[in-house]
Design brief:
Strand order of the largest sheet: 1-2
Helix content: 40-55%
Structural class: alpha+beta
CATH architecture of the largest domain: Orthogonal Bundle
């Protein structure tokens, strides 16, 4: 029973973090819309394979679906296949499930639909992920050495820390609805990362854009088809209206 409860807690951990983010700690930032930006999606896919797929699976997505964002099967084979050698396979984590259970108490949750499932009153699932991946800070009291403003007491370490560097949040106490509340006013860079803050935000935007696309790969096609359907219906409505007028013009 304890293992079942722990598994459920891990599986819904992102959701718990989303609820925590609605409190006094942090307001979700708006994620950039990149689901139509092929170079950004390709870079996001590369980041996902290198930093996320080590522990998390995306078991409802196949590698060959990456051809939809402009990659060839040869590019996928050469640059994306770390956990399998078949381009038609689903994206399964490189980590051994038995080891994951020993290390974390349960397998890390699947990320295929995380950009759709983590929406809350603070914004969309993409907004949550964009904020979550940019609000890690050093916390020596935690087992991993890291904490997160969007997901307080998070069990996941900051896997992108080499890119972002180490930061500490800066808070000010302000009156909010008559109560003293700590409000995030900025960040102090402790050690630099391999990317500038702007480059890191852009990289996270690419990663979140890819995860948003991965959650519904047919979304852009559906929107394009929907626009043409509406245009057709509009034209057909005008034609039907004029035909109706012509048929009934001599009837009084």
């Amino acid at each position: 029973m304890k293992k079942i409860i722990l598994t459920l807690l891990v599986a819904f951990g992102f959701a718990a973090g989303a609820q925590a983010a609605g409190g006094d700690t942090v307001v979700w930032d708006k994620a950039p819309q990149k689901t139509n930006d092929l170079p950004a999606l390709q870079n996001g896919a590369k980041l996902f394979m290198n930093y996320c797929l080590n522990c998390h699976s995306a078991a409802f997505m196949r590698y060959n679906r990456l051809t939809d964002i402009g990659l060839t099967e040869q590019q996928i084979k050469e640059n994306m296949l770390f956990a399998t050698d078949k381009v038609g396979e689903t994206m399964k984590a490189a980590i051994d499930p038995k080891q994951a259970k020993e290390w974390f108490g349960a397998n890390p949750p699947d990320l295929t639909l995380v950009a759709r499932s983590r929406a809350g009153h603070g914004g969309t699932g993409a907004d949550y992920l964009y904020t979550y991946l940019r609000t890690y800070y050093r916390d020596p009291e935690k087992a991993t050495g890291w904490n997160n403003l969007a997901f307080p007491s998070v069990g996941m370490p900051h896997v992108l820390w080499e890119l972002q560097g180490e930061r500490q949040p800066i808070f000010e106490t302000q009156k909010v609805h008559g109560h003293d509340t700590k409000v995030l006013t900025g960040w102090k860079q402790i050690t630099p990362g391999t990317m500038t803050p702007l480059q890191y935000d852009q990289a996270v935007g690419d990663l979140v854009g890819y995860m948003q696309w991965m959650a519904e790969p047919s979304q852009n096609t559906r929107v394009r088809v929907g626009v043409w359907v509406l245009i057709f219906l509009g034209i057909f409505t005008v034609i039907a209206w004029r035909l109706n007028a012509a048929f009934w013009k001599d009837i009084h």
